[in-house]
Write a structure and sequence with these properties.
The protein has no helices and seven strands. It is an all-beta fold. It starts with a strand and ends with a strand.
Length: 135
């Protein structure tokens, strides 16, 4: 049996704030060079890595990142930790990571979602997201 890790989604230089809350159709996947939903049909588990290179703005900023899969009715189902992918929110520059399955079987489409907290327009800039999958 051959086990091979694959980078299936990568985006960098993103600005995360409360104006949006998930990867949208305007974000290009650097792995495929296409703008589309994240295809997770070939993986059974994965690792989501979040890199925050710059100090966030605002007062008491927090960033929680999640991974969700679409069910057959188009609903998004959380498959990562309910607090954030690592179990804790991000409040400074650095990186975090977390498993995306939590015992669930992954569907065909996935998305990366986030929640930004704080006051005075908290914003995280230059953010990079990488999703690695294992068949």
């Amino acid at each position: 049996m051959t086990i091979r890790d694959n980078l299936i989604f990568k985006a960098s230089g993103l600005t995360l704030n409360s104006n949006t809350n998930h990867i949208t159709a305007s974000v290009t996947n650097s792995v495929t060079n296409r703008v589309e939903a994240i295809d997770i049909s070939t993986i059974s588990s994965g690792l989501l890595v979040v890199h925050v290179p710059n100090a966030p703005t605002g007062t008491s900023p927090t960033l929680a990142v999640f991974f969700e899969v679409a069910d057959e009715f188009g609903n998004w189902i959380l498959t990562s930790n309910a607090t954030a992918i690592s179990g804790a929110t991000i409040n400074t520059s650095g990186f975090t990571y977390g498993q995306i399955t939590n015992g669930y079987t992954l569907g065909n489409q996935g998305r990366i979602r986030w929640a930004v907290g704080g006051t005075s327009s908290p914003t995280f800039t230059g953010v990079g997201l990488s999703l690695y999958g294992r068949a």
